[in-house]
Amino acid sequence: MTQIEDTSREMRIDPESFAGGYFRNAVYRHWDPYEDIPQSLLEQDRQRLIESDIGHEQFEAFRASVAKFGAGEEAVTEDLAPLMLVFDDIDDQMFISSQIYEEAKHTQFFDRYWREVVNPVAEAKGWEVTSPTDQRYFPEGYVELFDRTEEAMHRLLEDGEDTPTNRAKAFCHYHLVVESVLAQTGYWGLQATFSEGPPENWNETEGDDVYLDGLIEGITRIRSDEGRHVGFGMHKVQRLVAEEGVDPDVVQQTLAELLPLVSETVQTDFDTDSDPTPLVEYAQEKLSKRIEIITNAEAELPPVEELVKIEGADDHAAAGDD
Ligand SMILES: [Fe+2]
Ligand SMILES: [Fe+2]
After folding, report:
1. Which are the contacts of 222, defined by CB distance < 8 A and separation ≥ 6?
2. Looking at residue 290, what is its pLDDT?
3. Distance from the CA of 211 to the center of ligand 1, in angstroms?
4. CATH of the domain at 162
5. Nearest to 70 by CA among 33, 110, 104
6. Are 320 and 29 in contact (CB under 8 A)?
7. Cystine design at 202: which of 83, 163, 192, 217 (Cβ 3.0–4.6 Å)?
8. Ligand 1 center to residue 226 CA distance, Å?
9. Whole-model pTM?
């Protein structure tokens, strides 16, 4: 509801609110997808791939994961819209508007990467040039996960369906499973495969020695944004459980229903010659820590500054000190 007249408050916004602090962090951490990821870095990625001895099968796996990220970011840009309509609080609305904008930037990055790196490399190698929307890139589990997320978000707009429990389910689908587990795991995997100095526990495989600095720069910035998005979702679920009487089992159950779909997606991403076990372990470990926090009313969320820092990666992009 638009509140032109409102006697319940003195000022329009509350900068001290949780969402207000997150909005401020989003503004402070703003990055420009055109300027901050320079053309020269993408040209370098293209050149390195062309000159590398990457095989066709490995390239297929690589572009399949780029396609999944692109489609995923596009889907979540749209699927956030119902929240904008159901939130009453201007601070929440302001934060969600920053998140929609950020998801749009993420979509733009992957589209650009396909045009400027993926297709020219395929062409130079004499391989088929494909479209990032080609159905071959989307396994059943992936499609199912995004369909269910869309349904959980859009349900909030239906008559009588905007209940605390349905909101908790929506946040579990979108912020906890898609953004937290699926995206963060996938990004971590790409980072481990294509950046110098892979994180510990990653089973480095022979031939994975192409360093794609443009891709890494983009996903480092995206992961940082995602850290903030996930923090917002965790906070919302925690409050719904602590204050609105949502049964914590709803959280556990929703996550349990969706996790097999994540495993299916992650495994098909990296199954050419690397072992996906560390990825899946990483996902589960992250999620169990998060469930502990959100189902405990007293537990404190890490501060947003910590959530936007990227572990296991060069921090300079996320730290905003460039
Ligand atoms: Fe995103
Ligand atoms: Fe996000």
Report:
1. 73, 106, 109, 187
2. 85
3. 23
4. 1.10.620.20
5. 110
6. yes
7. 192
8. 6
9. 0.89
